[in-house]
What does this fold into?
Amino acid sequence: MSMRPSTGLAVVPLALTALAPTAAFAVDYLSPQQAQQLMFPTADRFEVRDVRLDAAQLQALQQRLGMPARSAQWKVVVASQGGKTLGFVVVDNVVGKFELITYAVAVQLDGTVRQIEILSYRESHGGEVRLPAWRQQFVGKGPQSALKTGQDIANISGATLSCSHVTEGVKRIVAVVEAARANGQLVGG
It folds into this structure.
C-alpha cells in the first residue's frame, strides 16, 4: 500500500458541488400598500374585493388569452377618492426563470393599464424589468392589446423569461379585471 502525503485539502467530488445551494438574490422594492398609493396617489380609500371566476369564465379567459387563467380567485383592490372609483390594483406573482417576481398592476376605469410596479425581484439576472422605460410600455394597453413580448412589448436581452412572464401576467390581470367588471363583481367601477 503506498502512502501519499496529505496536502490538508479536502477533495469534494464535482457531483456534490452541483448539489450545493446557490446564494439567493432577492430585493423588495415596494409593499403592496406602497404600490397602490404610488399608482393612485389621490385615492383616499383602498378596498379589497374578492373576485371569483366560475368555470365558464375561466374557460372563456383561457380561450381568449391562449393561456390558463391560472386562478379562479383573485384579490382586486378598488382605489377610490371621495366615494368615486379611480381604478383597480392587482398584486400577483410570476416565475422569472427560477424564482418568483412579485408585481402590481393598476388598471384604469376604461380597462387599460395605468402603471405596473415590480415589488420584489428574486432572480440573480433580469432585474431590468424594473426599468421605467420597460414598464412604461404597458401604459394604455388594454383588453384588446396583444400584450406579447416581441409584438407590443419589447424583450430585454438576458431577461427574456422575466419579460415574457411579467407580460403574460399583466395580460391575465387586465382580462380578469375586465371579466370581474362585466359580471358586476367590481360594482362602482
Observations:
- Residues 87 and 108 are 5 Å apart (CA to CA).
- Residues 1-24 have pLDDT under 50 and may be disordered.
